[in-house]
Specification:
Layout (H helix, E strand, L loop, with lengths): L4 H4 L5 H7 L13 E2 L11 H10 L15 H15 L8 E5 H13 L5 E5 L5 H8 L3 E5 L11 H7 L4 E7 L11 H13 L3 E5 L19 H4 E6 L11 E5 L2 H14 L5 H13 L1 H25 L4 E6 L2 E5 L7 H12 L1 E2 L1 E2 L10 E5 L8 H10 L1
Parallel strand pairs: 1-11, 3-4, 3-5, 5-6, 6-7
Antiparallel strand pairs: 2-8, 7-8, 9-10, 10-13, 12-13
Helix pairs in contact: 3-11, 4-11, 5-6, 5-10, 12-14
The structure holds pyridoxal-5'-phosphate (PLP).
Amino acid sequence: MQATKQIVKIQHPPITEVKSWLSGRVFPAEKPLIDLCQAVPSYSPPAELIEHLKSSFDDSQTFKYSPDEGLSDVRNEVCSWYQRHYQGAPTSDQLCLTIGASQAFWLAISALCQPGDEVIVQLPAYFDHPMGLQALGIKVVYAPFNPETAGQPDIETISHLIGPKTKAILLVTPSNPTGAVISPTQIAAFFELAQSRNISLILDETYNAFIGTTPHLLFNRSDWPNNFIQIASFGKTFALTGLRCGALIADDKFIQQALKIQDSMVVCQPRITQLALEFGCRHLDDWVANNAVTMQQRHDRFKTDFLAAKTNFKLIASGSFFAWVKHPWEDLTGRLAAKRLVEEANLICLPGETFGPDLEPYLRLSFGNIEVSQITEVVGRFQEI
Ligand SMILES: Cc1ncc(COP(=O)(O)O)c(C=O)c1O
């Protein structure tokens, strides 16, 4: 049995690949491995959320299917969360709960595009996006990375990439891997560009809870459903990555079509995840805000120490959760540079080229996983190498 040529051409899951380099390796207690690889919060959900889930085990409904789009109480609670955080909100019929942002992305793309269509993707790109697009036979049109603008997408460049087959502009804010946050004004401009060219703006806002301000005001506009699709994740927001907690937000007629795919793909988000999401949206605003501050402090500390340390690595862009650095070895790909860091510094991070073409000089570091107390050690190891 063979996979199609289309699938064979796709890169292997980068985190799995990079973690496989660790197999059989033992790291000494005085210099343990530091994992800068995966973007997961280092903390657990709060005890009250865990208690709430435990108490739901006595109800046999917990273990049953829900409606495909999710329970209406939960979706209403999510809408209230949006109202507080975006000063505007989708209605509950503009929202479908999904198995993480990952599945929301698949729903959006499979309902919007057919093979041969094009989607414009800003480099460096969150690797699962091109991987998903390529699997679906959709052409990825990359907007080039400009190190001078620290990962900010350029509207002029993107407008020139729109062609007759373009279905969407896909942007990630805050960006994985650069941490760059696109301003509300820029987002409005991208929306208007999409509107003027009769295509969609798809925003993946997985890290929206870590910005600290209103991410954008699109939900205030009555015309947003015509040209805007949001890919949402509550995995990072409430530290629930393993419960696979996301949502697709779009025009209600589009959601109705996407539900055909939802039904055949997964039926629904698990109820236990929905209960966690409802609890989080109802009770955890302060908890989330405190964690956003913690993540920002990690970033600020990393940035200050890294710049002061004068390493041979160059910090190109950074934000909550991520730093995008240029490694000093011109003759090495990002993969070989990352392997060298495992060998010589006991640090693991992601090679730049896993985020798209021509990104071999870069590495992505994620500090979601590490405590502020480890940052001095991390920076020291970059200094030594
Ligand atoms: C930009 C971006 N989108 C989507 C995802 C996947 O999110 P989820 O775990 O909700 O599927 C991630 C996970 O790291 C991400 O960084």
